Amino acid sequence: MERIPVLRMGPLLLVTIQVDMHDKLALQLQDDITQRIADFGSTGVLIDISSLEVVDSFIGRMLANIAAMSRVLGAEAVVVGMQPAVAITLVELGMSLPGVRTALSVEAGMELLIGAVSRAAHGSEDERSQT
Amino acid sequence: MNQLAEIISRNEDRIRMQWIDGMAQGVQRPDLMSKAELDEQCRTILAAIIAGVRSGGWIEVAGVGWDAAREIFQSISASRARQGFSPVEVATYVLSLKKPLFSAIRGTLKGNQDEMFDTIWAATELLDRLALVTTEAYMATREELIVRQQQELMELSTPVVKLWDGILALPIIGTLDSARTQMVMENLLQTVVDTNSKFAIIDITGVPTVDTLVAQHLLKTITAARLMGAECIISGVRPQIAQTIVHLGINLEDVVTKAKLSDAFALALDRSGRTVTRTHTAPAKANQLSTLLEKREE
Amino acid sequence: MDQKMNVLKRDEQALRNSNDIVLARHKVRQWATELRFSLVDQTKLVTAASELARNALEHGHGGAMTLESLTNGAKTGLRLVFEDQGPGIANIEQALTDGYTSGSGLGLGLGGSKRLVNDFSIESEVGKGTKVTVVRWR
Questions:
Q1: Which among C6, C40, C74 is the nearest to B137, CB-wise?
Q2: Which domains does chain B have, with CATH numbers?
């Protein structure tokens, strides 16, 4: 069965969703991410949805689940690149994904995660850098 | 009354030429439509009328047999509306077909007064109805045009401004209704993406009242921006607005609000890791007034 | 709809499995693009279709979606009808309230879909089935 690849980048996991997922594919992705976090001890998960043109309540819940499950496993998840039309529609649908951290781009998302990882490691104030 | 269809079809050329010739310059509008185009259009209309009459008479212009003809009339009317023809010109266009049509009918049914009268009556009823269809379509098109112009006007009145790298400001002036807020929201969010801005300051100094509906719209915009990874700060909250918000029980817990735009800007700068420093002191001024003003600035 | 509407084009999409939901989304996207809806309106239509198609599949045990493009000369619209012969909905009012779940753990998404379209109507009879009709105008 086709799967959405979950790539490892050091302490982070990188997922780029580019296809219109059917339900089984989405559930498979949820499983794969949680499995990888456990396998590698990842501390961050970056989910790039900049190519997703539709996010319905099912996918919305999937994203919320991934964020929650990751947190339980000791990792922080960030969803990046949501398109404006998608955001507007999700809000109209009544979903605000409160437990999900978001960022404008992959770069911004990585900074967020690396900052979080480093803060966790050093336990002190970080140098905040933003272009 | 298929006589009507036959009469038109047999005299098609003559009717069409008389029709066009009979149109006053004011209806032809050679500045808007070439002779060839006009001729082609008249041909199409006459063919549609013939088909319509043959299919189901002339009374029920709303019937299925008239579907094709109605569409042709509507599209011709719509295009004339867009081109700038006046409503009188558009209606007259159809009605001026009466004279050549009646001539043709009289020519054919000369001997039979009763039948001639019936056929002329049928023809006039038909053309009156078609003129109404045409006028309705014209008005619908003009309304569409007006709505579109209103939208463009709205867009102009709500510009999104870049205050700094990654910091946008959206000064809203005037009332926020549903349609406008929709457009403002889309515009802001798109600009957030285009400029990669993490902060958007929505200034509502120019918004006279904030009721539950407006507050809902603002909250939707803020939530959508957050989903995209950007943060909104509301500024320009006047004391009266603050009171209204509390009285209405609107929950702004998760929203950062500031009274002044400058405060919001300072906050955004700070949150994005920037500080503003003075690189050199302003040149000393002997003037007492300016010294006083300098002190006020700090 | 007070004025007479002409149906320009009509098509159907069966909703038998989760893959059909994806197909339904694609069809709606295609039609919405052809009818020149704005990007946001397209997204709203496709998302509403996804919600309602999933409803028909999961709560209605399968059904079909009908697409129709409408016009009256001046206005253009896309009408979608979702029909299933499932258990039906006993309390429609309740189902339209956000957050309502039918016990299977997932919300019915009806209330949300309603906000994504201009016209929304629902007919349902317990034991017979459900029919949801939505329209979005350009």
A1: C74
A2: 2-142 (1.10.490), 161-275 (3.30.750.24)
Scanning every residue of chain C, which has its alpha carbon at the shortest distance from the alpha carbon of B185?
A: C40
Q: Subunits with at least 3 CB pairs below 8 A relative to chain A?
A: B, C
Q: What are phi and psi of A45, to 5 degrees?
A: -130, 125
Q: In this predicted structure, what is the pLDDT of residue C102?
A: 44
Provide the residue ranges of all domains of chain A, joining segments of one domain with +: 6-122
Between CA B50 and CA B10 the distance in angstroms is 10
How many CB atoms within 10 Å of residue A124? 7
User: What does pTM read for this prediction?
Assistant: 0.70
Q: Would you state the structure tokens that stand for residue A124, as one six-digit string? A: 């002190």
Q: Mutate which of B185, B227, B253, B270 to test chain A, going by most A C-beta atoms within 10 A? A: B227
Q: Can you spell out the DSSP letters for chain C?
A: --S--EEEEEEEEEESSHHHHHHHHHHHHHHHHHTT--HHHHHHHHHHHHHHHHHHHHTSSSEEEEEEEEE-SS-EEEEEEEEE-SS--S-HHHHTSTT-B-SSSSB--HHHHHHHSSEEEEEEETTTEEEEEEEEE-
ipTM score of complex: 0.88
Q: Is C21:A22 a contact under the CB 8 Å cutoff?
A: yes
Q: Express each pLDDT in B19-45 by its tens digit.
A: 888 776 556 667 767 778 888 888 888
Residues linked to residue A15 through DSSP beta bridges, in sequence order: A6, A47
Q: How close does chain C come to B163, measured CA to CA in Å? A: 27
- The CATH class of the A6-122 domain is alpha beta
Residue A60 with chain C: CB contacts under 8 Å = none
User: What's the mean pLDDT in B170-191?
Assistant: 85
Architecture of domain C11-137: 2-Layer Sandwich (3.30)
- The Cα C130–Cα C83 span in angstroms is 6
Q: Which residue of A has its CA nearest to C54?
A: A58
pLDDT-flagged residues of chain C (< 50): 1-2, 101-106
